[in-house]
Design goal:
With about 160 residues, the chain is of the alpha+beta class. The protein has helices at about 10-15, 35-40, 95-110, 125-135; strands at about 5, 45-50, 55-60, 80-85, 115-120, 135-145, 150-155. It has a 7-stranded mixed sheet with strand order 1-2-3-4-5-7-6, covered by helices on one side.
Length: about 160
């Protein structure tokens, strides 16, 4: 599948806040409370469209891709934190590897990091499997006390 990427717009950000995921991924559901963060230029949110120009998902780079309270010993320019979100209508259908690969290629060409890092909730085995298939290895885990979730950090050279 061919993808294209663009900076997020207010209209698309508002649409993303209406997405609902199946359990247990419903933890990723957003609301209008998230709109300000999606539109914050410091968080570098982008949207990804598929070959039919349907909204396939979004991504962010840097600070908003990190989980508050997590341990992040190295940050940009050495390590670029990457966050991704796929449209719920496309999840679980085998598009993840190609979708994430496209985002990583864009991130490398745009930001030129030495390596990439993702932080994924440990229950999200689909995402962990996708990133491992792209050469990421587990480097650290931590528990988020307030959310009561364990997170896994994975890294790979850019």
């Amino acid at each position: 599948m061919d993808y294209s990427i663009a900076l997020i717009t207010p209209e698309v950000a508002q649409e993303i806040t209406t997405w609902t995921y199946d359990v247990p991924y419903d933890r990723y559901d957003m609301s209008l409370d998230n709109l300000q963060g999606l539109l914050n230029p410091d968080y570098r949110y982008h949207v990804v469209f598929n070959e039919n120009q349907k909204l396939g998902g979004f991504c962010c780079f840097g600070e908003d891709a990190r989980v508050p309270g997590g341990t992040y010993p190295s940050i940009e320019p050495e390590v670029l934190d990457v966050g991704v979100g796929m449209h719920p209508g496309f999840t679980g259908q085998g598009f993840g590897r190609e979708f994430v690969g496209f985002i990583l290629d864009f991130a490398f060409r745009t930001f030129h990091p030495d390596s990439f890092r993702v932080t994924i909730a440990s229950f999200n085995q689909r995402s962990i499997k996708t990133f491992k298939s792209l050469g990421f290895i587990e480097t650290h885990t931590f528990a988020h006390d307030r959310l009561r979730i364990e997170f896994i950090q994975l890294e790979r050279p850019a």
